[in-house]
Amino acid sequence: MGIKKVGVVGCGLMGHGIVQVAAQAGCDVIALESDQGFLDKGLARIQKSLAKMGEKAVQKGKQTEEQAAAFAKDAFGRITGSLDKNDLADCDLVVEAIVEDLDVKKALFAELGKICKADTIFASNTSSFPIAEMADASGRPARFVGLHFFNPVQLMRLVEVVRTDKTDDDVFAAARAFGEAVGKAPVSCKDTPGFVVNRLLVPYMVQSLLMLDRGDASKEDIDTAMQFGCGHPMGPITLTDYVGLDTTLSILEGWVERYPDEPAFEIPQVLRTKVEEGKLGRKSGEGFYTWDGDKKA
Ligand code: CAA
Ligand code: NAD
Question: What span, in angstroms and rounded, lies between the C-alpha atoms of 35 and 137?
Answer without folding.
Answer: 24
